[in-house]
Hints:
Keywords: Kinase, Transferase
GO molecular function: kinase activity
Organism: Fusarium agapanthi
Distance between the termini: 37 Å
Order of helices and strands: EEEHEHEEHEHEEEEHH
Shape: elongated
Oligomer: single chain
Number of helices: 6
Protein name: Kinase-like domain
Amino acid sequence: MSNPMDPQNPLRNKQCQVQHYKGAPRYWPFERECTNMALLEKIDASLRLARESERDILLNSKPTTLKEAYQNLMSFSTAAFDQTPGAGKLKPFKPKTRINPCHGWTQLSGTTIVAHTQETKAFHNEEQYFAIVYDFVPEGQLEAKNIIDQLNFFHIVGFLNVHLKLENWLSTGVLVDFSDIVPIHTGLEWWRESSMNVGTKAQEQQV
C-alpha cells in the first residue's frame, strides 16, 4: 500500500481543524470543503451526462443577484433537463475549467503526519486528523487566465469567492484549497463587490 503522506504520491491529503472565525461560534474548513466538493461533484456529473447525451445545460453566464445564482445551480438538476434557450439570459454552459477531483476523506494520526512531513508544529502525536484526498498537483508557474477561469466558474455556479490566496493555487492555476469558496446555501451575502473583484485581483497580483 502506498504512503498517502509521500509528496510524490499521486494523491495529496489536506488536514483541517475546527477554528473560530470572525465571531462565528465555529468554522471548520474540513466541513466546508466536504460540502463544496460534494456539490462540485454533482455539478461535474451533470455536465458529464449532458455531454454524453448531447444536451446543453443552460444558465446565466453573468449572474448578478442571489435569485439568478440559485437558478444557475438548479440548472444542473434533472428538473432542468427540458429547458430550452429563450430570449432571456440563458445560454449553453460548456466550461473547460480544470477542477481538481476529490477522492473522499480519511483519518490520519498525528504520529503518521509528523513522520512524513516537514511542517510538524500544528500536529500532535496523540491526535487524530481528518484529511481530504485529491489528485496530486505539482507546483508550477501560475497563469492569471487559468485562475480567473476557475473563479468565474465558481461564481457562475453559485459559489462566493471569499478571498484570493495565491499559495492555495498550484500548477498553472489549479485551486487546491476548496475552503476558499463558500456555497450559496450558507446564508452569507452572495453578491458583493469583493467577491466579484477577486478575478481582477488575480490579474493585478504577480503570478
